[in-house]
Give the backbone structure.
Amino acid sequence: MFPQRLDSPLAYDIAKALIDGFNRHYRLFRAESSRAKHRFETADWHGQQRAQRERIEFYDLRVGEAVARLEKEFKAGDQPMDVWHQVKLHYIGLLVDHHQPELAESFFNSVTTKILHRAYFQNDFIFVRPAISTEYIEPRGAPTYRPYYPTRDGLADTLERVVDDYALLGGFADRRRDAERVAAAILGRFQQVKLRANFQLQVLSGLFYRNKGAYLVGKIINGFVEL
C-alpha cells in the first residue's frame, strides 16, 4: 500500500540521486555518440571498434556508480519499505518534465534491483509498466526525425538533400549515382501504386555508426501504408 503522504526527505534525496545518475549516463552516452560521427568522418576505424567494445559496458558502469553512491551516502539497502515507496513516487515526480522518462524508468529498475531484496520486485517499488507517457512530449532542440516530401521524378534530388542535411565531412565517390540507385529501389516498390498527397520520407535526425558504416534509419509513408 502506498504512503498517505510524502514525508521522507531521505526518499527525495535518493530519488534525486537516481535521476542524477541517469542524466549523467545519458549525457555521456550522447557525447560518445557525437564522437562516433567524428571517428567515421576521419576513418578512425580502430577507435570506432574500441568505442563499441566500451559501449557494451557503458550502461553497467553507470548503474554500478549509482548503486555505489546510494549505498555510501544513504545506506539505501537498509532503508525500510515506506522509504522505498516514497522514493518511487518522488522519482515519478522528477520525470514529469523529463524528455527521456522511459529510459529513466529502466535505469531506476536496473539500480534498485541491485539494492533491494527480490521481495520488492513488484509495481510498488519498481516500474512494471511505464508511469509517464511519452506521447505528448514536445522535443527540445533538434527534432527526432526529419520529414521530406519528394515527387516521383524528384526522389533522387530529395535523397541527396537527405544526405546533405547530415553535414558529414568528407566526399563521396559518386553521390548522385548512389541517390539514383536508392531512388530506383524505392520506386520499384511503388511501381503500380499511386503516390498519395502525403507521400514522404521520415528519417531519424542522427545516424547510427557501426564498424566502418553509418546507417540512416527511416520509413516511407504513402497514404496509409508505411515501409
Summary: The longest strand covers residues 200-204. The radius of gyration is 23 Å. The chain has a mean pLDDT of 86. DSSP finds six helices and six strands in the chain.
